[in-house]
Amino acid sequence: MGALYLDTTVMTATFLVLTLIVAKVTSRRAPVRAVIRDIQIINMDWIKHYYFVKYLYLNIEDPKELMSCKDEQIDGILWNTTIAGKTLKQPCPSYQKGVATRLCDEHGEWEPPNFINCTNEALMNASALLERIIENETQDQIQETVNNTLRLMKNLTSTTSRISAGDLSSSLSVLEKIVTVTNATGLAIEKEVFYAVIDNILSSDNSNSWTIVSKETEKYPTFLLKNMDRFSKITLQNDNITATKFNGSNFELVINQTKTDETGIRFPEEQLNNVSQNSEEIPTFLELPKQASNDIKAINFVAVLYKTMSDILGSDSNSKEKKGKHAKMSERRFFVNSPILSLTTQADLGVLDPPLNLMFGHTVKNKSTDMHAVCVSWDFNLKKWSQEGCTVNQTYRRRTVCQCNHLTNFAILMRPYTQVTEENPFLKTMSLVGVALSIAFTFLTSLVYVLTWRFVRSDKNVMMLNICGSLILSNAMFISLVEQTANEVKSISIS
Predict the structure, then answer these.
(1) Which of 50, 127, 426, 462 is buried deepest, with most CB atoms within 10 A?
(2) Where would you find the membrane-spanning parts of this chain (predicted)?
């Protein structure tokens, strides 16, 4: 990058700019074709209908510094050569509507194409029709349109091994509309088809699309949990519910009625019957014991097991926590290491007594003693996992047993600890000895001043005694509190 300062008294501004763009800018060594990034007019006069530029400042970039991404064809789209740092827009593939984008990064390398705004034309039309019908038509027409839309979504999501990011985002929006209109009108939708769409969306093959959707929008995988939770509550509003069981590839669901004072709730029954310490696959299940203190006898419930949600969620959060006596910062990465269990009841059971028992089979086997299991539930208000009300009862390499005193969506978070280098004991001892010697000799200095005060009395020596007192006090605080840096308040006070 360079700059050129020209005296252009005899040239008009228009002629000068056109000339500089098509001409060669000559350096001391050889002519070089340059790219003008910025033109700044320093002084310009107007004479007889012409603008005359006296001084011109050009910001010129050396072409050797320019980088670009080369032509490349992916998913039927030709991505033409693009300057580094620019984003190229292209029409979506033929079977989708919208605009795809792709960034050429600062190093001249293509980023993966972004198809978040590319949606299947049939799905886009169905979504638009659903929007119009909801606003203007009768309940029967709305119900028919909703069920037709669900059947279309089932076909679209089942005929492809991987749902694109754009179709995934649109599907989530349509499902939210359906749940909202179901709640508002009480219409009866085809639940089996609704659950089949959810099952297809939850496939592990869609993990990359989920990552893109989560990054580009606010539709995280927990967005789906929220709408499933809403739909479960809508279903439970009907006193005469029909016992329903859905066993998909990616999630299981049971809708039923039980007597909490007699049998409690056990889900899934098949996994509960096959609990074995020596089995190859550790089951995941929940068990709500009899609630003797609850006045509610018969109760409707919806229990869900999300088998693949950990693959879709991936790393849940990053946080920095203090470790070690000197409060060194080390990153701890949390990730969901189990299927997710959900239990929703028609009536609020309050604080559960006895608590809900949950067993989680680990998705990734815990082979390290540094891995720490945490029992958590999803807080829809805080939009994050919370340990409140849940405790780890037992944890092993392949499974963890939790107890929780409330109902919602539950999972296991694993937290691998980053190894922190321990401080050298010799250096620590030397530091303490040095501070102790400093206190001792500072005290001796003060003592000498006090004993000889009548001979050395002066304002200068008064200041010296004050300094000695401050040093003794600060060093004494350091020695007494150096081991308590885990306490943030005390650490700040010492500082």
Answers:
(1) 127
(2) 430-451, 463-482
Give me 247's structure tokens.
């066993």
Report yes or no on whether pTM surpasses 0.85: no
Among candidates 174, 210, 178, which has minimal Cα distance to 191? Answer: 178
Q: What is the DSSP letter of 289?
A: -
Task: Say if 432 falls within a structural domain.
Answer: yes
C-alpha 436/C-alpha 471 separation (Å) is 11
Q: Phi/psi at 98 (nearest 5 deg)?
A: 125, -165
Handedness of CA 442, 446, 449, 452 (dihedral sign): negative
Q: Which long-range contacts (CB under 8 A, 24 or more apart) does 127-131 make?
A: 127/170, 127/173, 127/174, 127/177, 130/174, 130/177, 130/178, 131/177
When the pLDDT of each residue in the chain is averaged and rounded to a whole number, the result is 78
Nearest to 85 by CA among 109, 110, 105: 105
Q: Torsion-angle region of residue 173: left (phi > 0), alpha (psi -120 to 50) or beta?
A: alpha
Determine phi and psi for 287, rounding to 5 degrees.
Answer: -145, 115
CA nearest neighbour of 149 among 190, 119, 186? 190
Question: Does residue 152 lie in a domain region?
Answer: no
User: Residue 74 belongs to what domain range?
Assistant: 68-114
Residues 51-105 pLDDT 10s? 555 555 556 555 545 688 999 998 789 999 999 999 999 999 888 899 999 999 9
- Segment (H or E) for 58: strand 50-61
For residues 92 and 100, the answer to whether their CB atoms sit within 8 Å is yes
Between 43 and 304, name the one with better pLDDT: 304
Pairing status of strand 82-83 against strand 77-79: unpaired
Asked whether the beta carbons of 314 and 384 are under 8 A apart, the reply is no
* Claim to verify: residue 362 and residue 463 sit in the same structural domain: no
